[in-house]
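Researcher: I've got a protein sequence and the SMILES for zinc ion. Could you write out the 3D structure of the bound complex as structure tokens? I'd like something to compare against our soaking experiments later this week.
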Amino acid sequence: MRHILSMVLVLCFIASKAQDPCATYEYESYLEQINPGFMKALQESRNHALSSMSKLGKQGNDTVYRIPVVFHVVWNKDAENLDDSLILSQLEAINSAFRHNHKDTNKVRDLFKPFAGDTKIEFFMATEDPDGNATNGINRVKTVRSDFGSTTNLFAESVKSITGNGVDAWDTKKYLNIWVCEFTFRGTIVTAAYAFPPTGAQFWSSNNFTTSQLQGVVTNYRYVGRNNPNDNSNTSLREKTLIHEIGHYLGLRHIWADKRSTCIGQDDGIEDTPLAGVETRVCSTTKNSCNEGADDKPDMTENYMDYTPYPCTYMFTAGQSTLMRFNLLNLRSELPLIHVIKPPYEPYAQFSIYPNPSQNSITLRSMGEGDYTMVLSDMIGKNVKEETILVGETFEQKINTSTLSSGIYHIRILQNGSEVYHEKLIFQ
Ligand SMILES: [Zn+2]
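Model: Sure. Here is the predicted complex with zinc ion in place.
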């Protein structure tokens, strides 16, 4: 009987922990264990950032900062060796979120639209590796290790070093390092991803504390890119996972401030995110976990820093943008930021395809401008049609599909090799 009870307890622990979209808060606690004083330093740097934000004021508000990124794809099985197109589609998803010019901005509830913010931060694939060699920003490393998860904690720190059969960081002061790998907790996916939050060096009490090689983000390979074929979870954040983690990397906390079911105590420090007592795990427009009195607002479930599943997160707030910009300039100040006044990032053209299901033809309609490639593929991924399309202000094109047999197809729209639109179609 005792044996059965302990088994039930273990299963409950695993079930309640299963598929947490992010373990950054747990990671901070873990760092505190191995480096006592970490949490105090982190809290001091947060307080410093929050109290100094007002100094940022309007200064440099029009400047767009661009951060070089390296994706370390550390793979054992073929499925983990993600295609370039998936990684590029992830970069596009990150940029359109940080610039708030993606196709779902209109889904932000009217109540919150005035708070939605363009962070004016962009990311680009590194073009030079630490030795000065040309790179496309994707560092592929084959490993003998099939799972980087630890049996004693929720993380995958060994992926960050060659000695752990992973790969050493590229200078974390010069690049945002993103490690992509398989990691589970004793065979179960417990954590999708986690990030190393910025810490002000001036607060470190120990001289032998060297964490710079750990800075960055680790993510399970299933959650990288739009429509990652390895992701079979309908509750994951999908391509929003890395958006969320980069929010942590630039110093944001969860909007419920990790309080775990209480409205009392420390907030996330951001004025324009309403108080929230607990994370959100289903799409909801009515959830209101904290009554804030006269100016009460529902929980901002569409915020990237909640746990709301991917179809329902669309925004950072202006306050979160200000804090990230402040942290970037003060706590990650050695990143070789490219400063530009005019944003180089092209807004996401908005595509729609109708009818779906269809017979004999489909019509592709878009708003925006640019050169795109339209690729139509069948269920097993074989391309059956490919066309270059030049999209003008109001673009509409009929595509004849009468020669194709009935079934399920995928249409993908690419810009400079990067996927900007993907939809499943049914031909009858
Ligand atoms: Zn998180």
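Model: Residues 22, 24, 244, 248, 254 surround zinc ion (CB under 6 Å). The chain is about 20% helix and 20% strand.
Researcher: Great, I'll pass this along to the crystallography team.
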